[in-house]
Amino acid sequence: MSTSNLALFKENMKLRTKIFAHDCVKFSLDLPKNTLGNHIHGQLIRCSTSVAANYRASCVAQSIPMIISKLSISIEEADESEFWLEFAVDEKLAIKERTEKMFQEAHEIASILIKSRQTLQKR
User: Fold this and answer.
1) CA 85 to CA 105: how far, in whole Å?
2) Cα distance between residue 75 and residue 122, in whole Å
3) Do 114 and 77 form a contact (C-beta atoms < 8 A)?
4) pLDDT tens-digit map of 35-93
5) Which member of 13, 24, 56, 61 lies 3.0 to 4.6 Å from 66 by CB, making a disulfide possible if both were Cys?
6) How many domains does the chain divide into?
């Protein structure tokens, strides 16, 4: 990948992960205000915003091992976001149609970042 293509990829992923975080936060604000709803609310906000924050950190990391570390955290947090979205539906706190786009986006982000990590690990 050329330097300009890499820069464009990074900027697109920064935007994509930030939009994902915003969507999850907005969804979380609509969860019921009860013990379980509050718990999912906090967990989903934490992990979805961590996807974006750690991806951004990977873009300015000083070494390949640090980039891999930050990407790994983003992957784990994207997977956790999937879990909390699925759990909200399982517990009937949300309808599946409301979470499908975010669930798919979390999965796609994780898949992209896994491939990026694999590429870096070959270096």
Assistant:
1) 11
2) 18
3) no
4) 999 999 999 999 999 999 999 999 999 999 999 999 999 999 999 999 999 999 999 99
5) 61
6) 1
CA pair distance 49, 80, nearest whole angstrom: 11
- Judge if pTM exceeds 0.70: yes
* Count of beta carbons in the 10 Å neighbourhood of residue 61: 15
| CATH code at position 23 | 1.20.1440.60
- Asked if 79 and 54 count as a contact pair (C-beta separation under 8 A), the reply is no
- Assign 3-class secondary structure to the chain: CCHHHHHHHHHHHHHHHHHHHHHHHHHHHCCCCCHHHHHHHHHHHHHHHHHHHHHHHHHHCCCHHHHHHHHHHHHHHHHHHHHHHHHHHHCCCCCHHHHHHHHHHHHHHHHHHHHHHHHHHCC
- In the numeric block, which tokens belong to residue 38? 């509050």
CA distance linking residue 58 with residue 17, whole number of Å: 12
Output the CA–CA distances (angstroms, integers) from residue 27 to 37, 81, 113, 122, in the order listed: 11, 12, 24, 38
Domain with 10, as residue range(s), is 3-121
